[in-house]
Amino acid sequence: MRIEVLRKSLFETNDKAASENRRILDEHGVVAVNIMGGAGCGKTTLLEGVIPHLRHDVGIGVLEGDLATTKDAERIAALDVPVVQLLTEGGCHLTATLVEQGLARLSLPQLDHVLIENVGNPICPVNFDLGEYARLAVLSVAEGDDKPAKYPYLYKAASRVVITKCDLLESCSFDLDHAVSDIHALNPDVPVYATSRKDFRTMMPLVGWLRSLCNREGITAIGLRHGAARRPN
Ligand code: MG
Ligand code: ZN
Q1: Residue ranges per structural domain of the chain
Q2: How far is the CA of 19 from the centre of ligand 1 (A)?
Q3: CATH fold label, 2-222
Q4: In the chain, fewer beta carbons within 10 Å around the N or the C end?
Q5: What is the pTM of this model?
Q6: Quick check: 170 and 58 in contact, CB under 8 A?
Q7: Dist. CA 175 → ligand 2 center (Å)
C-alpha cells in the first residue's frame, strides 16, 4: 500500500501574501523596511529619532506590530505621520497577511517608505518575509554584547544593524568592539550604527541610509527565501 504524504509549507500562506505585498509596494515605488529586535531594545525610540529628519521630504508611513495596545502607534502619530497599529493578539511575530491589511490602510501613492516595526522578539520574526526591501536589526546595550552570537539569524539577515542605548555602555559592561566583531562574523560587510537617544545626532547615519533607499529609480524589491541571508545595498 502506497502512503501519500501531504506537507503544506508552514510558510506557504505567508510567502504568497509577502509576494503580493512586494508587488503592491513595487507598483507604488514604496520601499518597506522591516525593523526587528527584542522587546524594549528601542525600535520605537529609533523611529522617533529618525522620522522628524525625513518626514518633510520623504513620504513615510509606519506599521506598528505589537501583541496588545496602541501605545507605540500613539507615539508615532504624535510625529504627524500616518500609522497603523497591527495587533497580533498574542502572536510573537508579524505575518505578511497582517502587513497586507496594514498596507491597505495606508495611502501608498503618497509614500516613499513604509517602516514596519515588528513585534519585540529577536527570534521568529526573522523567518517571516513581509515583502520588505530591507531589514534593520536593533540591539540595545542593555541586552548584552553576547546577543549577536546567541541570536545569529537576526544579524545574518540584516541590511543594517543599529546598537541603541550606547550611553549605557559602561554601566552595562557592554563591549562594543566585541559585539561588532560578532556581528561581522555573521554578516561580514553589514554597516553597524551605534546610537543613543541622549544624542539624536548618532541616528543621522540611519537617516542617511533610509534617505538613500528612497531613490525611486531602479528600485527592485528583492525576494527573501526563507532562511536565506539577504543584503541589499
Ligand atoms: Mg516598540
Ligand atoms: Zn513568532
Answers
A1: 2-222
A2: 26
A3: Rossmann fold (3.40.50)
A4: N
A5: 0.90
A6: no
A7: 29
